[in-house]
């Protein structure tokens, strides 16, 4: 059973406890998903650090971020908003194929959005489904262990579920609804929802981290 502390950690809400602060900081850094594939928020995109990691390609998946020229690094921009109604599917094959071409050419890629929580992780999950030999459930668990703040919005998860079915002929993630909270989430996040049976705690998370916008 997931306890309250685990829920706080999973939503990256920091407090005076050093362990929580450390996990929160992890989500502001560059996460290595595969030896050649990295995931981050915009704040972590620093040219010197990219060169240290040997990054050859940066993919920016946030429409609100300006294009950032980087020396000797190819930059690709995806015009995508982080809202459930955004059409993630129209870009999935394009970015998955781009990442695979980077891998085949022995390149190293960093994919990011504003926070590295919803948009860019969605593309990483899709890549792992299409080219990584993983189910969507396995992909999410893999990425979540490395970067516990990942949380694609509800609409993106629905696109990813459909993408997995088309690519693999199966759906390993399903949407579930908790009638007590009136909230729908992917079942891979269901343990987190169980912790939120206290309505006041759920409301606090909604207000502080935009939880309602993702899973309402």
From TrEMBL:
<dbReference type="GO" id="GO:0005737">
    <property type="term" value="C:cytoplasm"/>
</dbReference>
<dbReference type="InterPro" id="IPR029021">
    <property type="entry name" value="Prot-tyrosine_phosphatase-like"/>
</dbReference>
<dbReference type="GO" id="GO:0004721">
    <property type="term" value="F:phosphoprotein phosphatase activity"/>
</dbReference>
<keyword id="KW-0378">Hydrolase</keyword>
<feature type="domain" description="Tyrosine-protein phosphatase">
    <location>
        <begin position="29"/>
        <end position="169"/>
    </location>
</feature>
<dbReference type="InterPro" id="IPR000387">
    <property type="entry name" value="Tyr_Pase_dom"/>
</dbReference>
<comment type="similarity">
    <text>Belongs to the protein-tyrosine phosphatase family. Non-receptor class dual specificity subfamily.</text>
</comment>
<feature type="domain" description="Tyrosine specific protein phosphatases">
    <location>
        <begin position="89"/>
        <end position="148"/>
    </location>
</feature>
<dbReference type="Pfam" id="PF00782">
    <property type="entry name" value="DSPc"/>
</dbReference>
<keyword id="KW-0904">Protein phosphatase</keyword>
<dbReference type="InterPro" id="IPR016130">
    <property type="entry name" value="Tyr_Pase_AS"/>
</dbReference>
<dbReference type="InterPro" id="IPR020422">
    <property type="entry name" value="TYR_PHOSPHATASE_DUAL_dom"/>
</dbReference>
<protein>
    <recommendedName>
        <fullName>Protein-tyrosine-phosphatase</fullName>
    </recommendedName>
</protein>
<dbReference type="InterPro" id="IPR000340">
    <property type="entry name" value="Dual-sp_phosphatase_cat-dom"/>
</dbReference>
<dbReference type="InterPro" id="IPR052103">
    <property type="entry name" value="Dual_spec_Phospatases"/>
</dbReference>
């Amino acid at each position: 059973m997931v306890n309250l502390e685990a829920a706080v950690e999973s939503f990256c809400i920091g407090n005076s406890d050093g362990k929580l602060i450390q996990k929160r900081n992890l989500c502001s850094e560059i996460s290595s998903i595969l030896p050649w594939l990295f995931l981050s928020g915009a704040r972590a995109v620093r040219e010197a650090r990219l060169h240290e990691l040997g990054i050859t390609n940066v993919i920016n998946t946030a429409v609100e971020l300006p294009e950032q020229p980087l020396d000797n690094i190819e930059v690709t921009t995806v015009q995508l908003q982080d809202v459930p109604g955004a059409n993630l599917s129209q870009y999935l094959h394009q970015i998955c194929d781009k990442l695979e071409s980077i891998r085949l050419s022995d390149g190293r890629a960093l994919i990011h959005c504003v926070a590295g929580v919803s948009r860019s992780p969605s593309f990483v999950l899709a890549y792992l489904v299409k080219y990584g030999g993983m189910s969507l459930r396995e992909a999410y668990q893999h990425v979540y262990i490395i970067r516990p703040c990942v949380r694609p919005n509800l609409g993106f998860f629905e696109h990813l579920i459909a993408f997995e079915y088309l690519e693999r002929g199966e759906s390993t993630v399903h949407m579930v609804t908790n009638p007590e909270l009136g909230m729908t989430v992917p079942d891979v996040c269901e343990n987190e929802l169980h912790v939120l049976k206290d309505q006041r705690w759920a409301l606090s998370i909604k207000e502080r981290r935009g939880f309602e916008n993702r899973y309402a």
